[in-house]
Write a structure and sequence with these properties.
With 121 residues, the chain is α+β, with helices and mostly antiparallel strands. Helix content is 36%, strand content 23%. α1 packs antiparallel against α2. The two termini are 28 Å apart.
């Protein structure tokens, strides 16, 4: 049983790999430097790599959020960064991780919980 208020959860094991599944939410922004004022074309390249990964994700005005096992999420961030860096661009990455073993499907659950709390007020 998952307890949202517990500081510690059981770490599930992925039955396919036998490895612990460390659920991770990432907020990532990847963009080059020195390419001008408009970065959308470059950001779209990085977001394309993230979307092709198959991990749950969504893009907003500032970040792309990704959810999955820690190793998978970090690999996707690396691949998206490499998309720009391998073209010779100095590339900046802003990354925030929320690592919460035992949880899944948090990409939308967090926002839904906040909405539920606000509706009670």
């Amino acid at each position: 049983m998952i307890d949202r208020n517990s500081d510690r959860q059981e770490v599930p094991v992925d039955p396919e790999t036998g490895k612990p599944y460390i659920n991770t939410l990432a907020a990532v922004a990847i963009a080059p430097s020195g390419t001008g004022a408009e970065l959308s074309e470059y950001v779209a390249q990085a977001v394309g790599v993230i979307r092709e990964s198959g991990l749950p994700n969504e893009t907003n005005a500032m970040f792309t959020n990704i959810e999955g096992d820690l190793d998978e999420v970090l690999q996707v961030v690396r691949n998206a960064t490499y998309k720009l860096a391998s073209q010779g661009y100095r590339t900046g990455v802003t990354l925030k991780l929320d690592i919460r073993p035992g949880f899944t499907s948090q990409l939308h659950a967090k926002a839904e919980l906040v909405d539920k709390i606000l509706e009670q007020d």
